[in-house]
């Protein structure tokens, strides 16, 4: 188990992270962490390692691209001083290029994506002890699908940056890949983006494995 | 223009036909035809051929499979005595096999699909003058996608029955195909099933062409 | 087809244009263009000419007169830098004179109407490539009706300005005229102003014809 | 003043009578008489002739034609045993022929209108002391308007029946006519049917005059 | 008839005047004058004297005392420049002394009442042609009731000021008195303050009589 | 303390008893006893005599007269088999005579009131051990007020029946009388019927005194 | 892993099982399994063993005691023909004795609890292949707490029956016990009954362990 | 009775005090004092000592700790200039340490609790005549429960400060203790904090006893 006693673990991202979390705090009573993978990760941490006293905070905001993250980075990340910072961003950066192809202002192309990520990561690494990067994903098994190809390219940026910044990398696309032989995308997400409980559990399992969570611990 | 003066044109189907139409009537004031392709077809008929006095009725019901159509066939089709009957069914028959793979009671396999269709068509042809069959569709350009393959098979049933029963056939899958070179599915339907205004217009244009609608008529 | 690849087409007007569009943006996902003629025009453009990548924006606001347009012209038109600008205004300028006859502050008389139009058109022509003017209309076949007479006078201003500013002119009153022999106004608009789907389709067809839309293009 | 002490005065009709009255009772506390002409008539009766103890009941139902009245006549009129019975019906019988021209099932043509009226009047006259007939109306000054012509024909039926059955006749069309020189229809009713407070006051004044209401009584 | 062509008549007061009027304007379409005596007065003016083109504005606000009127006097009265100004205030000034006896901050005693009235009347008389004062009232027939006694004292202030400022005086208490022999207060207002339709009609009749409204005019 | 261990105490009545109690049960979790005097009585019983395990049930229904009680007597009283039965009814029997004077069907005159009471009391005394009668009341200090006079007459019936049936009598009118020297009715009930918290506490104190509640018990 | 391919696993119980599941079906799209331990179990099954095609159904109903289960047993269990049946009941049977001590009708004492359980288990074992019994629990670490003592007694019944009927036993009380050294009950359930996400995860982990779920399977 | 004529009694605290009181005022018509112990105290004062004209104000705010009280002390206490000031705070200061153990920012430890209390009491004693301190409480009979132990420690601070500042002390924990022999906590508060009507009555009785309320006064 990689987390130490009393650490704060902050998740930031888009609607997949948000999942109706309490705003603005993103922590506290009454399902404040939302109902997605962040809440599952927290529930497994608290039920299995209560003695570690991990504090989980959810700062996901629906619809966000990396451009939006940059605008709220100071308040939602730097001021929070998290020990661990988990970032999953890029889905909307890509999706808008496909669902709103003619509104180019809404697109975040790959150069801006990478440059903005570098900028916010640089600022974050001064206040956090450990970074976790989750690739953006697309619940589409056809690797020749144009949006899947683009999402994979954005995912490659994340993989490259993870190496560069010594972050723990979680390849979410690969995590979903494991069920594609048995489950059609519609059984996980009607729009191939917003996962149901099964899909969020796939993300949470991938995260927990990446931090060496001990499933057999009582 | 194939419709004659004073004829009643009834549409039946699932959520793509329904589109929040007035229930139970499916016709009348205040956008009673819903906001999908049925309403577009009606608006073009009324604005271009008001002298024909075509009466359009919408009997779509969200979530319906052919099994559901059969249950309400007597009341919603036979009692209505439509001159023209347009049927588009099969999407949910297929979709449930992919989004709820383990709830097999909710699946309508291809034999039941064809047999039930035959049964209701037989009963309908006694009261209607002209049948129109629209294939079920899937807004997925990848013809090797498993759900697309299955949907195409159900579409083939429709094509066969159209020939057999001398119905006008509308190949909706082909209609969508025409924009796939330019538009990604997400620009037409987030879940690849429920079309936005552009998608419904594609369906309506296909229908209007099939009845020899004269676009240049003032 | 008069529009070129990648152009932005902005519609501004009153409730007939607005039709519950997304505010403030007036474009984007989830039926952001509203449910009136703007959405129909867009759906025909996207489904027929997807390769042109036309970006349609709806800036209609219910209840607006030309006086209201002037107040938001800088933000809603100039800043948007549209290639094409379509204006339909004047209905409320006239209507208030008839439904609220004693509240004269709410009336916009014909001189103010023309002068304000000139002012905003002058400012717009510097940023747009092509203007489209739609006359205000009144779904009243009786040309001797006092409000119809007044609306026709405001329409004449539009016709004059179209000539003067080299704008494409769409005579909406004439467009509705074509169905009056068959349909009573109440079949198009209960209050003779807010069109139902048939009425909005009449407006959309007139617009599409004016830009040389090819109905036979697949 | 034609009403006697302790009499019950029942109004029946369509939405113009209904006006959000309490259902099913149509009398009692909390604005149970609705907010239209029935409430105005009642308020003037109670405030001016409280000693007469007139009991006013409102049995209007929105959308009703004479065909609907017949269905609920036994329960809503005969069982109520009103001393005075006021009937205003026919607007929807005519309107549907103009706003839903192709749904002929919804039309009540003039023969059915007259025959049904005769039938319900015959049954009512056995239980009531005095009948009051209000013509259906259309707030349209142009007497050559097709729907106005039709409404006048239905009004003529009412006039004829009033004579035949010795009912007090109230010519509502004529009552509205008196303001047409000064007010455009839109100042009374946006859809030329549902009156605003001014329009309902015109109806109430006509009713009160017909029963010899003394305006100068303190 | 005391009002001249084209005059503006503004009503100000508390909840009895307010009656759910449109805010902030207090005039316009869609029952903007509320559903109390102001709307009845307007409806009788428009239906009987449409040629006078009287513009009625309602600036009543629920719960107001004269202290509240003073705060909004500049905006709601002076800026409006009404030809006629009708004031009914004082009910809450008195009522709070009886329903909230220990919250003395909420009470407006008679000296403050008179002084504040003088102050706002002085400012109003410079912009209006004619003042109308309605006494506050209490729908309580027992003249020895303590709150009735107090309300009568406030009413006496109004009577005195009416004489002093040459205003038309409407003795609303006396108007209600006329029905007390026949109707118990609960038949007009459950809380003896907020009138039902009958009560508002009593107020409206008193107002219309005071301006020499001709009930026999067609 | 007159109640014995384990007894069931059932309250029946109108809106003063109802106070938004849970329906249909009238007991259980989540403020099921409503927010009026029944809840206050229960809270004092449970907090002071928890060892007595008194079960309190509230069967009040807003708007009820004794005529309504009779209709639901079998289900709401007899089937409940209460040890103690507390009845407060008559306010609406009287009130309707004053607020709806012309709707005589809604009035319950004093003979029907007494006879119906006798009938239901006779049936109840077979299943209950002790009856408690609360007089109906009117929060009006003026004993010459016509509705107060009538309410006192109905109260006299209750007093007579209490003696006759050996019931505990609670003179609610007298209970309110005690505060009239200091508090105006509006400080207890805006409509002189529905008490605020102070008024309900007056009722509860009177009830608790009548059952010899020991206020000094810890 | 004890479940076989294609088996149906049905959960029945009270609010801890229900968790806002879809009614009446308890399975299907859109989070139909609710948001409690049933959904977590399902999500882990589907994401880890998709090839097993397990069908999970949730038939929990809030507030239920074993008495309520019996009433709906035929419809909700027997007709469903589940291969696996998981039962968790008894919390409300006990709780009502403590939160509603004087409403003894709502209590289900231990004899009725055991007898009813035997009855429904007998009927279920004929249609299911495997039973799973979860003890009722109380998130209260103090084993001398009176309600905890009682809940433990009901839990003992479950343990005994599990042995007798060869059911898989899950000791939920013990599962919660494991976190009590670190977490106070309020961190898992404000009312010590309804678990938050952490509490439901404790239940789900216990269930998954009991069926030999392989956490390391990819 | 310790309160004198015309005094203002202000209550401040957390959700137990708040109970849905009117905001921001905390006094006035329509149950402005909320539905907890403050309202009960007020109702007993007004119904028993109306001649004292006590003005009760409720300034409780749900979720508050002493840290929150300090922020609003100037506005909600000092500006109000109460003669009597009743403070009950500390429940959330303790509770957050147990229900959100890892969010340490939300905890108010005992030193900060005492110091902040001293600070606000010092400032309040300059404007008030009499202070009343209620200990925070926990409806948990087990005195060895960790949260009960902590709450008792915070209660001891209150007891000490009461002595030091000459405040009337109300030991709420002891007040609840008296019913624990008969009632389980769940019968008073599901979450052992928010009392039902019985629990609020226990608090109100304790308060009224502390001010020498005379229960026998009529």
From TrEMBL, chains A, B, C, D, E, F, G, H:
Residues 11-201 form the SGNH hydrolase-type esterase domain. Its EC number is 3.1.-.-. It is an enzyme of class 3 (hydrolase). CDD domains: SGNH_hydrolase_like_2. GO terms for molecular function: hydrolase activity. Pfam families: Lipase_GDSL_2. InterPro entries: Ester_Hydrolysis_Enzymes, SGNH_hydro, SGNH_hydro_sf. It comes from the Bacteria. Keywords: Hydrolase. This is SGNH/GDSL hydrolase family protein. It comes from Gracilibacillus marinus. The lineage of its organism: Bacteria, Bacillati, Bacillota, Bacilli, Bacillales.
């Amino acid at each position: 188990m990689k987390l130490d006693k009393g650490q704060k673990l902050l998740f930031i991202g888009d609607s997949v992270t948000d999942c109706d979390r309490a705003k603005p705090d993103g922590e506290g009573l009454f399902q404040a962490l939302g109902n997605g993978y962040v809440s599952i990760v927290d529930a497994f941490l608290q039920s299995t390692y209560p003695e570690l006293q991990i504090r989980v905070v959810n700062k996901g905001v629906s619809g966000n691209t990396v451009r939006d993250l940059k605008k709220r980075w100071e308040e939602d990340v730097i001021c929070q001083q998290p020990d661990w910072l988990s970032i999953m961003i890029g889905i909307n950066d890509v999706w808008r290029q496909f669902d709103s192809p003619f509104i180019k202002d809404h697109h975040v192309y790959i150069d801006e994506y990478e440059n903005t990520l570098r900028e916010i990561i640089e600022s974050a690494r001064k206040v956090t002890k450990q970074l976790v990067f989750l690739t953006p994903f697309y619940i589409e098994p056809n690797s020749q699908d144009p949006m899947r190809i683009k999402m994979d390219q954005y995912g490659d940026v994340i993989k490259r940056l993870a190496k560069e910044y010594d972050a723990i990398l979680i390849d979410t696309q690969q995590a979903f890949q494991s069920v594609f032989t048995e489950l059609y995308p519609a059984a996980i997400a009607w729009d191939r983006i917003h996962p149901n409980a099964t899909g969020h559990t796939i993300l949470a399992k991938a995260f927990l494995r990446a931090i060496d969570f001990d499933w057999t611990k009582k």
